[in-house]
Structures are given as C-alpha cells and as structure tokens.
C-alpha cells in the first residue's frame, strides 16, 4: 500500500507531488512550471487571492530534498 504524501509536498495548483518546488512571495510552495504559468497571466496568490508583492520565485531546496527522501 502506497503511503500518502505529506500535504506540504503537494502543489496547490497541480495537486500533485512537486518535483521542482519554489517559494513565491505569498510564502507558499508551488511547482515551478505551474506557478510560472499562473504568473504569466495573474499577479495574485493562487492560495489567498491577494496581490503578490513581487513575482520572483526562489528555489525551495530543503523541500525538494525532503520530497526526494520521501
């Protein structure tokens, strides 16, 4: 029986386990390709709907490592 992934490993946009997690200005982690597509047409947080202060994305190395170990 396959273990359910922790909720923090799931991208809120794709609802799949992230392979390349990044941190957005809202403090939430997203799959890079999914949040890049989102930000191509929007400047708001997918989680809160609030306007993002910036659209820079930071690699989330620790989360990526935790997902790989899982």
Automatic annotation (TrEMBL):
CDD domains the UniProt entry points to = RING-Ubox_WDSUB1-like (cd16655)
Q: Which residues belong to any copy of the U-box domain?
A: 4-70
Q: Name one GO molecular function term.
A: ubiquitin-protein transferase activity
Question: What SMART domains does the entry give?
Answer: Ubox (SM00504)
One of the protein's GO biological processes? protein ubiquitination
Q: What is this protein called?
A: U-box domain-containing protein
Instruction: Please give the organism.
Output: Emiliania huxleyi
User: Lineage of this protein's species?
Assistant: Eukaryota, Haptista, Haptophyta, Prymnesiophyceae, Isochrysidales
